[in-house]
């Protein structure tokens, strides 16, 4: 086996706990700009205990494969969002998506859930 070197890579630490957990590799990382628009910036590819995650920038990956991001109607993105009162789950729905509340996964029981309709994520450079 050889060594694989990724450059550049982002090192991220969570504010109130780990940014990512085991099994999160490949997860899309997004950010909100000052206008509240969501932008895709990277992919989780590794993490260490207790609180360091490594993120690969997304644009070079998209360019290499000749693809772009577009969220079709029906797309649902679920994110954990820390608040001063504890974590909440935010469910981002692509425009035109309908999600009945009774279909909420049982894993969310006891955790506040907020639903938002957002435009598709855009990849930042």
From TrEMBL:
Instruction: Give the source's domain of life in one word.
Output: Bacteria
The name on file for this protein is Uncharacterized protein
């Amino acid at each position: 086996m050889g060594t694989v070197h990724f450059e550049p890579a982002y090192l991220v630490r969570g504010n109130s706990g780990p940014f990512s957990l085991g099994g999160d590799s490949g997860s899309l990382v997004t950010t909100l700009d000052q206008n509240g628009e969501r932008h895709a910036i990277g992919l989780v590819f590794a993490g260490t205990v207790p609180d360091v995650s490594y993120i690969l920038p997304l644009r070079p990956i998209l360019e290499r494969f000749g693809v772009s991001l577009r969220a079709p109607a029906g797309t649902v993105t679920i994110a954990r969002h820390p608040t001063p009162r504890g974590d909440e789950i935010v469910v981002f729905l692509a425009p035109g998506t309908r999600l009945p509340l009774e279909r909420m996964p049982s894993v969310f029981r006891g955790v506040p859930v907020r639903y938002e309709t957002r435009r598709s994520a855009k990849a930042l450079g």
